[in-house]
## 1
Amino acid sequence: MYSIAGRNARVIQAHYEKGKFIIRKTEHLSFEEENIDDFKLFLRWIMNNPTEKTIRDLPAAHRS
């Protein structure tokens, strides 16, 4: 999901994992005239292909 307000935007991702709803978001990205880096970052987010893998692997120390 993308949130755009004026010249600012952020990417919001959510998924359900092990009984919990996980929400992640980027910092606000600025689309001011001189800030091409945030614009490129936003384009990379919206043009990606999701991998469908949402469950994170446990670190080796926590594995059985």
Note: The chain has a mean pLDDT of 78.
## 2
Amino acid sequence: MTLVSLALLGAYFAGGMNFMMANEGWDAADSFYFWCMTVSTVGYGDLAPTTPKTQAFVSVYAIVGLVLVWSIVSDYYGVVQGKLQDFQAKLLSTIGIELVDVHALPIDKHTPDQVNAKVKYWRRYLLALLPMFTLLSLFVALHFVRKESSFTEAVYFGVITATTVGFGDFGFLEETPQNKCLAALGVMGVVVVFANAVDEVLLIRKRQQLRHGKIALPSLEQLEALINGKRNAGEGDYISEADYVVETLLKGDLVDPQILLAIRRSFYWKAKAASNGKRNSLITSEDLAALWKEKNLGQCSPR
């Protein structure tokens, strides 16, 4: 988290807190708690704006917060989650549960089937979910101890919080100001780690399906159609690795087509920098030299 990001985060919460303190009469702890519950989308409902003025403000400010706060906080908690995951991976390795580094398996020496035989996906799913279960367990345990609720109620509250359902039958409004603020930060952490864990599980699942050929990989018919298209366009009677990768990404919906088009357009204009306007499938050292020359001329030109 950079100083600029930290300053933006502080300015957002300070602005929102000051407005609610001035217009709702809340103290600083309640105001901070309210905005944490709002931008985390949990929204227990134990605090809510009560006037048209504050309701209108929250309607706009909450949208700003969802974009600004999550773009910053999710990265920060993601780093924490990654470090926790690394630590847990080392712990698992001590009991013989280790992940296979597929980058250490040379492409020319290991077939897709051989890689699939080596990769134990249950280990990857376990490692992806461990940070979530760790933080969720701590959250549940603290609620169980501090609220003197039953274990079932504590688990229920933890899950309802992590999934951002937030029915409102439990909350932290009656806690001391310090505990209320700590709980608010904890809620944001649980929500972010839960969302990251779900994303990672879905990504692992997609990798698993791709490696087993269940999604994305072009069929022989599609490869034949691709070759025919290139032949008819006078671009050769072959499929390059780049052609195969692009076809797989598009077929499996693994990349946004507009992003891919932007990348290909960028490559095209860099690859023809020194080729007299002719299309080139490679960026050569001559192209790179021409690009540097163009950039240096641009910097030296009068403004």
Note: Residues 76 and 229 are 46 Å apart (CA to CA).
## 3
Amino acid sequence: MGYAQELRRILGGFSNYALSLSIICILAGGITSFHVGFCAVGGAAAGFIWPAWTLVSLCVALAMGQVASAFPTAGGLYHWAAILGGRFWGYLVGWLNLAGLVTVLAAINVGTVRFAGTLAGTQAEHPLVQAAIVAAITLSQAAINHMGIRATRFLVDFSGWWIVGVSIAIVLVVAALAPSLSIGRVFTWSNLSGQPAEAPVWPASESVPWLALMAVLLPAYTITGFDASAHASEETIDAAREVPKAMVRSVVVSGIAGWIMLSIVAASIEDPRLVAEAGEGAFMRALELAAGRPASVAIGWAAVAAQYLCGLATVTAASRMAWAFARDGGLPWSTILAKVSKRTRAPAACVWLVATVSVLFTIWTPIYATIASICAILLYLSYVVPLVLAARALGREWTALGPFHMGAWFKPAAIVSAAGCAGLVVIGVQPPNDQAMFALAGLGAMLMACWWVVASKTFSGPPRIGAPDAGRLVVIRTREAAIKREDPGP
């Protein structure tokens, strides 16, 4: 793809899959955002809304898989957009994706702090206290990533198994201990807007269809981050085959496991309003009513561990994306940010950059639901724009497909992806998350200004498709020879 191999290519197919599975992490978004769906329409958020959006996410993952198979680089989405649509689209998607990854890291760690506070029976009510705790968590995740992909790989592989194991434990414990279970509760539409009364998750509304749309934020926020597999392409063996499979598998496993886990919890809820009155503590109240305090707290702390590893994996993906973008001159101070540690072969400067900016974002808006809305919109926009460009270029500018492709189904999948993303943009800026609209508008205006004033003249984009020219080939070989001398190995 026209680059020197600077990162260590040591990830197998499972590790790449575990990276995306860890960032999706149904024990993070599925639990910490449970109230976003349940306090809108009750059990139907699990029974109907979750599987419906899972199918949209699957279309996105399948279509992204085809493009990732053809262009397996750490830049992922911005790289695809630049090749298939031009430098402007590459620059736009790069910033959307990086902003999405940084804000999803913020959402994960704020959600972890809030959820742990629920378990401990106390919350960090002052925004700066919450920010300080989030900072400590985020910087510890950055410190582990600074050590390199070998340390990260071990924890991410463990995370993949941990998520599945804890999810199964929730299902078994609720099934065994709940006073009653009714599948009908999973498919019952309940208007729970206006709850809790002192700080409603959603403003009171008489329109259940409208509330059903708001509930989409539960699965839409949770099933994001599977682009991480693409960002780890240059560290993955046989990336053209393994990366697409990892993205699709992570969405399928998360979608099915999340559906089962949330459905069994919803099936145990005898009094939906009592659970909705707990607000952001709705999941833990439902679990405690079903399984009792000791079991629910033990499961809750196991979920906190998964949420921490989710944030750790997000730092990995975000730092690779930032590094790849800087390598092509897409960021300020790109020369510094594009450097890789000689000792660990990790993009150390980018690791600390994404961690720092993520913490600063939580100071600007400490509200979890708003952060989740912003990151979901940014990520899905960054997913869909390259897919629209790819659908337009397929068979014309883009003819060389990778080993993973959908054949005639690619364009329909891209259309479904685009339609789902358009709906998400509308849903994600509704009150009480209307602050998201100002954040997105401000980011858009800033990017347009930066493009016309500076980036249109300085951003070269990724190398052209095809074999590198003689001059670039010499640069690549020289750099790879230097890397071999610098790299201490295992």
Note: The mean pLDDT is 90.
